Amino acid sequence: MSATSNATYLGLDLSTQQLKAVVVDNDLAVLCEASVQFDNDLPEFRTYGGVIQKKEEPHVAVAPTLMWVKALEMILDKLRVCGVDFSKVAAISGCAQQHGTVYWGKGSRNHLQQLNPGKFLHEQLVTSFSVTSSPVWMDSSTTKECNILEEIVGGPQKLAEITGSRAYERFSGPQIAKIARRRSEAYSNTERISLISSFLASLFIGDFAPIDYSDGSGMNLLNIHTKDWDDVLLETCGPNLREKLGKPVPSYSDVGPISSYFVERFCFDESCRIIAFTGDNAGSLIGMRLKEGDIACSLGTSDTLFLSLNKPKTVLEGHVFCNPLDDKAYMALLCFKNGSLTRERIRDSAAQGSWQIFNELLDSTPRGNFGNLGLYFDAQEILPFVIGDHRFNKANDKISRYSSKEVEVRALIEGQFVAKRAHAEDFGFVIGPNTRIIATGGASANKAILQVLSDVFNSPVYISEMANSAMIGAAYQAKHALLRNESNFDEITRCLPEPALVCRPYDDAESIYKLMVTRYRKIVEEIKKKTSTN
Ligand code: ADP
Ligand code: XUL
Question: For the chain, where do the domains classified as CATH 3.30.420.40 start and end?
Fold first, then answer.
């Protein structure tokens, strides 16, 4: 099926907690959606929130690679049951949680090229991975490798100049370096290293799929200006790494036809093309169709803020990635690890596990929360590099708990958004009278939470028709990449509705939250000082 008016497009998002898929028609209208929840639908892998973290190694976070393979088979079955005619799919693209790495063992390319359509994928790939648990973005166990990487190029500033980010524990370069150093045998038995995005694309083409520039920017290995791997960084992370990574490609690249495995097993047409898969934040940027001045706020497992950039800039906190739609452009990203799972913890302890009660509590407290300010980091946070619960009262005394559930709930939500605004300002995001915040991700369904976002940023908040912007972005990218010689992205997506306004800030919001942002900065400095002297 080529790009005719009957054509459909398939988009996937392999996120932290689930695999999601959507099929859209030629006008980009949604025909069918499906999801596979890792914890509930694949309980045999024993993940919690899609990952495995052990008490004795709290900084290590992995996910079983084979679980993702099984999830792909399940989701295609779900789509088929929902009535999707795979023979009409003209192109497939996808995205995935960023930074995680997949280690294909020696001989695995052969396995991929000779998949037997009579058998399950996971049966055939069970021995294909030299490292069976993939490190994921929640891992923060590579501080040592980060220090080495920064030192080798002359410091964090220099690394940020080359790769768009100083060294971050979850980035793929430090993660690969850890495996090369601590599990050298597994490393040398590795034929290819994929990002989670290119791993999923590899399953579809039945061969190793290339890493795209945008997701490749989250590795601390790619020179974001030349769009090639940096040899010094490669050599520092592991032997023969250039060969193991393959050549990176533009994010809109056609990486090949669908494998005959899917043609025979699921009745895809053999002309169906696979478009490079990318990172979930890049996928969201595509799905949200941001305009100049817009700031995207994704409230998923991680919370992220991002926007398009015409030119790269060098920052020590936050990231600059290649833009997935335009090779000359970039995107800025700030990532906060303690997003939805921390909100769920406080919902469970303060609101009996109900979002409705959580929202009632949130709405029953005033903006500014009587001077209380709380910061809650269940896992080692990225921005700021802090862990634990930190509750402060009006007098700025650190206290162990708040007197009411209402105050606790508001402290959490205000603290999360005040932190976002402080770090966004530090990065240089312009938050002005024309700013629109476009919200996405699971928690963007929650209007009470979005009202606090609107107040803290003193800007109106909008939502797109689809809360799963990464998944839908992948479907848009599939069509865009297939037709890009005939029409540009704006022309292809012009048929879609504009984001809808959900909240406006209250008049007193700016005076309250400007002060709170200043107070947040001081508190974080104090916490960091105390942790470094303990
Ligand atoms: P990811 O893509 O990272 O897997 P999603 O963007 O799908 O995550 O978001 C999943 C999260 O959305 C869940 O962990 C849940 O806490 C959150 N969520 C869903 N509904 C609500 C709601 N009404 N209010 C707040 N959070 C919600
Ligand atoms: C971005 C990041 C997370 C993951 C998971 O740098 O680490 O947002 O992409 O969604």
Answer: 8-281, 290-463+504-534
* Per-residue model confidence (pLDDT) at position 532: 73
Q: Is the CB of 99 under 6 A from ligand 2?
A: yes
Q: How far is the CA of 300 from the centre of ligand 2 (A)?
A: 9
Rounded to 5°, the CA angle 513-519-523 comes to: 140
**Token code pair at residue 188:** 């040398």
Please choose, from the candidates 308, 310, 305, the residue with its C-alpha nearest in 3D space to the C-alpha of residue 333. Answer: 305
Gap from CA of 260 to ligand 2 centroid (Å): 32
- Out of 303, 340, 444, mutate this one to test ligand 1's pocket (max ligand atoms within 8 Å of CB): namely 340
Q: What are the residues whose beta carbons fall under 8 Å from the beta carbon of 396, sequence distance 6 or more?
A: 519, 523
Show the DSSP H helices in 206-322 as ranges: 213-216, 231-237, 241-245, 260-266, 280-288
Q: Say which CATH superfamily domain 290-463+504-534 falls into.
A: ATPase, nucleotide binding domain (3.30.420.40)
Q: 479 phi and psi, to 5 degrees?
A: -70, -45
User: At 3, is the pLDDT very low, low, confident or very high (cuts 50, 70, 90)?
Assistant: low
At a CB cut-off of 8 Å and minimum separation 6, what does 128 contact?
104, 105, 107, 108, 111, 112
Distance from the alpha carbon of residue 469 to the mean position of ligand 2, in angstroms: 14
pLDDT at position 534, please?
60
pLDDT of residue 533: 66
Nearest CA to ligand 1 atom 14: 340
Q: For 216, how many CA atoms within 13 A lie in the half-sphere containing its CB?
A: 32
Pick the residue whose CA is nearest to atom 7 on ligand 2: 137
Q: Residue 341: CB within 6 Å of ligand 2?
A: no
HEC assignment per residue over 324-347: CCCCCCEEEEEEECCCHHHHHHHH
Ligand 2 centroid to residue 139 C-alpha, Å: 11
Alpha helices by DSSP H, listed for 370-463, are: 405-427, 447-457
Q: Which CATH architecture has domain 8-281?
A: 2-Layer Sandwich (3.30)
